Amino acid sequence: MLGRKLAKSVNKNSVFLAHELWQYSGNAYRRISQLPEHIVEDLSDGSGIPELIAELDHFSVRLDAEDDLCWENLKTLLGNLMNFEPRRSQDEASLDEEQNKYATQFYEHGGVEVLLRILMFNTVFPKVGRKVKVGFPESELLLRVKSLVLEILTKVTTTCIGDKVTAQLMASDDVLNYVFTLLAHQKTFINSCQLVEDMLQSRREVLDLHRIHNLRGLISTLEDHQLANFCRILAVAISDLDIYENKSSLFQQNKQKRSRGFVNIRDINQGKYCATFWLARAVESYLRGNTSYCDQVFLMRRGLLQHVASNIVEHEIRHKEILQSSFDLLGELIKFNIEAFKTFEEILTTQAKFEKFITTVNRNLVDSNMFIRSLVLSLEHLTEEDTTYKEYAKKDNKLLMYIGDFSKQLDYLYKLIKIINVENLTQENVSCLNTTLVFLMFANRKGQLPKYLQALRDEKEDLMDVSGSANLLRNFRDLLTFWQDHYLHKDKDCSALEKSSRISFEYWKQTVSVLVCDDKDDKAGILHYVSPMPCDRPN
To answer: How far apart are CA 202 and CA 236, in angstroms?
Structure first.
């Protein structure tokens, strides 16, 4: 009975009795707040650090955010980390020395563990006692406390024990994931950003973003200015380590840059490209589907089209994911929107810029095919449906005039068909097949399928070996047969195609049926153009 009673807690008044209890029950001092006060004072040696940690330790297991004492103690701690002043102006090193000494003592007495318990309070103690007045897991008052904890941890990482602290923070995915969730709150966003960045910089390997829970949901909650900061974090998450002299970690590289005034242009560009990637991916996901003119204009007025297009024109972007995201976003911004095409004219002001942009498109067809599709859809819309700007589209706009050229359309059809076959189709490149269909659906509307198919058969023969054009068209027919099976029971995919193109899915199916028909005499069908060549016939 006595053993059970004593096992509830260790003795705060007598180290002897606490030691005796430990021998019987194994229950010993585990936190600094359990130590007798005179022991804590002896540990202090006049610094006040153990006493402060002991005070905070009480709140780490029973936090009442309405209790100002916890807040005041945290403010004191932050002040102590920030307010050291050198005794003599010529003694430049004294501030850092005093700050490092304070941070080291704080760490050695378990201060970081205490701060982490406060930060993670609702995840460790989800059910609070009756007397605790925090009614919601992330109340405004509690978020205020946690924001201050984040700021303190960020400050500690800049001291001489920064590596140890970040290693402790990164020891478990739970801490990183929880700090990511705090990005969703206004009160904790800025300090969470800074701490996450420091934590990611401490890693020796690239972060697998799939380890961050509900990343897509988090992005959707961010406002514009928050999204920009968040993109910077993600740029850090996937940055390359090899461009620095010290390759141990991004955290060490950051120290290298700060200490030597080191600026690496490649690093700056890479960060900008990575930020562009995540920004493009998030916004493109939002725009995808039913095209909203108002949303397009809103984003263009904020310079998004200029930013993404100028990156492609002015820089050599080698990251496939960044290129694809950039072109996907551009495609959504320009689709059916004459103002976007006028804006593009202001970007592609010289022939050299235009050629640089088109060259990038043509070298990366899998990545740019959604942009090409948007060009074709927009040309048809502006010249056949909303004809107010028909003359402008045909005579004045570089991009629309370019995609309206029959020979250019034929080049794209040939190249898009040639880079895919049934065996190598993936979720990524199947969009190339749909882009070829957009070209041919409009040809079908105008009764021009024979013109396109004959041109593919005849005009491209010199680019291929014997009977190569026939093989190209056979491959295309096989792909369209696969397409019919692929979309047979995929209602969601069918709806997405219909909404993004403004072409009924019934017409998609109808055009495919015409192209794959078995009647060799039907000049609108592919089979008419794949009759066996002499070398294909059996002896």
So the answer is: 10
Structure tokens at 213: 């829970």
DSSP letters spanning 234-301? HHHHT--STTSS--S-HHHHHHHHHHHT---HHHHHHHHHHHHHHHHHHHHHHHSSS--HHHHHHHHH
Q: Which two tokens stand for residue 440?
A: 């041919």
Rg from Cα positions in the chain: 32
Q: What DSSP line would sit under 57-87, residue for residue?
A: HHHHHS--TT-HHHHHHHHHHHHHHH----S
The 10s digit of each residue's pLDDT in 214-257 is 777 787 777 766 776 776 676 566 554 443 334 344 445 454 44
CA distance 515 to 221: 45
CA distances 94 to 20, 64, 210, 340, 439, Å, are 45, 38, 44, 57, 71
Angle at 493 between CA 487 and CA 495, to 5 degrees: 110
Enter the tokens of residue 511. Answer: 């055009």
* CA atoms of 169 and 466, how far apart (whole Å): 64
pLDDT band at residue 531 under the 50/70/90 scheme:
low
pLDDT (tens digit per residue) in 251-275: 454 544 444 444 444 444 555 555 5
DSSP code at position 130:
T
Largest CA distance in the chain: 105
Show the DSSP H helices in 109-161 as ranges.
111-119, 121-124, 140-156
Instruction: For residue 214, give both structure tokens.
Output: 């509900």
Do the Cβ atoms of 188 and 146 come closer than 8 Å? yes
Name the token pair of 189.
């966003």
